[in-house]
Design brief:
The protein is of the alpha/beta class. The protein has two domains: 2-49 and 177-246, FAD/NAD(P)-binding domain, CATH 3.50.50; 52-173, 3-Layer(bba) Sandwich (FAD/NAD(P)-binding domain). It has six helices and 15 strands. The strands form five sheets. A five-stranded parallel β-sheet has the order 6-13-7-8-9. A three-stranded antiparallel β-sheet has the order 1-2-3, with no helix packed on it. The protein has a three-stranded antiparallel β-sheet with strand order 10-11-12, with no helix packed on it. Strand 1 and strand 2 (26-31) form a beta hairpin. Helix 4 runs parallel beside helix 5 (121-129). It is elongated, with a radius of gyration of 22 Å. The chain starts with a helix and ends with a helix.
Length: 254
């Protein structure tokens, strides 16, 4: 932020973009406070909101024992403790396999009975073949249990209606994410999940981070097909800024 101020950047904190329109060849970003910003170019980096389970105990334990990604950092925190992963997609399967390298007990909770339904077959096979991973099919998390720390997760079996408390010290919630793109509906092409289409997928002419609307770019988690990692988002932002400069030069606006 210090560097940005040094180069003359202006900040609107707190600020919320609510619309994107065009007027007289410029892009107009509407703001929640009723104001607007007029720009030659717009770079959208609004990210995503990771989906959360609405269950008792989450608010109490979220800061210390609930994670939305499984990296080396989280794996070290879990040490040799039993952990639980919620989700049936590739992200959940990859997390379960990764965590099984350290934790002797990894519980994978899915709401249906077919592990290969939403997960690549090769990955589903790896999960099923791991002696450290237990797949809880047709199940859902009903409660996080623990006062001083996370102790157990209450699982509900959807077919039998049975409930079981399972020891766990950390919960990895990998049930998808919703991009912050509601304010762009009807203005930019989005994929079926609401992520912004860029590059060839958007028939754009401003490079791989350009959208169909000339002068509007998107980077990071909000972009369709992005890697969803901090390092990747930072790299995308750096490259996209160069593309913004190239666009401004081509348009004679620098």
């Amino acid at each position: 932020m210090v560097q940005a101020r040094k180069f003359g950047a202006a900040f609107s904190i707190p600020g919320e973009a609510t619309s994107l329109t065009e007027a007289d060849g410029y892009h107009v970003v509407g703001l929640a406070d009723g104001g607007s910003l007029v720009a030659h170019a717009v770079l959208v980096a609004t990210g995503v909101r990771y989906r959360r389970l609405d269950v008792p105990g989450l608010d109490r334990l979220e800061r210390s024992s609930v994670y939305y990604a499984a990296t080396e950092f989280e794996a070290r925190l879990c040490r040799q403790d039993p952990v639980t992963v919620v989700g049936g997609g590739n992200s959940a399967g990859q997390a379960a396999c990764f965590l099984a390298r350290r934790s002797p007990v990894v519980n994978l909770v899915i709401r249906h009975d077919d592990l290969g339904r939403d997960m690549s077959r090769y990955l589903a096979d790896r999960v099923e073949q791991s002696p450290r991973i237990t797949v809880w099919r047709d199940s859902e998390v009903r409660e996080l249990i623990g006062e001083e720390g996370f102790e157990e997760v209450l699982l509900h079996q959807l077919q039998s209606d049975d409930e079981q408390r399972v020891a766990t010290r950390a919960l990895f919630m990998l049930i998808g994410a919703a991009p912050h793109t509601a304010w762009l509906q009807g203005e930019l092409p989005l994929d079926p999940k609401g992520f912004i289409l860029t590059g060839p997928a958007a028939d754009g002419s401003d490079g791989m981070f350009g959208t169909r609307r000339r002068g509007v770019f998107a980077v990071g988690d909000v972009r369709s097909g992005s890697v969803k990692r901090v390092a990747s988002a930072v790299g995308e932002g750096s490259v996209a800024i160069r593309q913004v400069h190239e666009f401004l030069e081509a348009e004679g606006r620098r």
